[in-house]
Structure formats: structure tokens, C-alpha cells
Design a protein that fits this description.
It is a single chain. With 142 residues, this protein is an all-alpha fold. It has one domain (3-141). Helix content is 74%, strand content 0%. The longest helix has 28 residues, at 46-73.
Length: 142
């Protein structure tokens, strides 16, 4: 396992996922502002929320990439796009189960849309994260 490679892969995967969230409304998906959601958990000051949220979001991406790398190094799957897709789909399921709990403990919960297109966007974002993370991580193992 290459921890530095996993962190880099997670940061790249998170960047691509974040870009997808920015253009999601142009693709017919609802606005998905995880950075705002995370930031407002830590501060009421709007000017501080986005930088804090971005830091937390990218940190979580690095941590999840380390978890992916640990699972791969334990012999589960392979570091390729297919297993990145599978891990990303599993990651989406975990996120969809834990998100309602996170919103219940959020000090300033936002109004969230609960429709099928929100779920599609969440699954797509995490699948892309998984694929990109796997593809960026693979060369670190060569």
C-alpha cells in the first residue's frame, strides 16, 4: 500500500467529484452543495463556511482513498476502473445511509431535496470518485 499515492488519488478523485457537483444542475441533477453542508457544521459565518467545508471534503476524500487502498492491499478486488466503480457504488450506499444521521446532528441543517435525481447524482459522484481514485492510484503501485 502506498499511503502518499492514496492521498494524492483521493484528492484528485475529490476534485473531479467536486467539479461534477458544480455542473450537476446543468446536467438536470439537483444542486449538491456538500462543501456548504460540511462548512456550516463548523461555523455560522458564511465567509468561513466554504473554505472549512472544502478542507473537510478533501480531507474525507483522502481518508476514503486510504481506506480503498487498504482494502485493495488486503486482496479485495484490483486497482482498476471496474473495482473503483464497485468501491464508489459501495461508498455511495454508505453515504446515503449516513447522510440522514448527519443532517439530524447538523447545527444548521439545510433544506435538502429528496427525489430520485438527488440519489442519481450522489451515486454518480461517488462512482466517479471511485473510478478516478483507482486510476490515479494504480501507477503508484508499479
Amino acid at each position: 500500500m502506498n499511503i502518499l499515492g492514496a492521498v494524492i488519488a483521493g484528492l484528485v478523485g475529490t476534485a473531479v467529484m467536486t467539479m461534477m457537483m458544480a455542473v450537476a444542475p446543468k446536467m438536470g441533477l439537483p444542486k449538491m452543495d456538500i462543501i456548504g453542508l460540511l462548512g456550516t457544521m463548523f461555523t455560522e459565518k458564511k465567509e468561513n463556511a466554504r473554505p472549512i467545508g472544502a478542507l473537510v471534503h478533501f480531507m474525507m476524500g483522502a481518508i476514503f482513498a486510504i481506506i480503498y487502498a487498504a482494502i485493495w492491499s488486503a486482496g479485495v478486488g484490483a486497482v482498476n476502473w471496474y473495482w473503483g466503480l464497485i468501491f464508489g457504488a459501495g461508498h455511495a450506499i454508505v453515504m446515503m445511509v449516513t447522510m440522514p444521521m448527519m443532517l439530524r446532528v447538523h447545527p444548521r441543517p439545510p433544506q435538502t431535496q429528496r427525489d430520485p435525481m438527488t440519489a442519481v447524482g450522489q451515486i454518480l459522484g461517488h462512482v466517479v470518485f471511485g473510478i478516478v481514485t483507482a486510476l490515479v492510484y494504480a501507477p503508484f503501485l508499479a
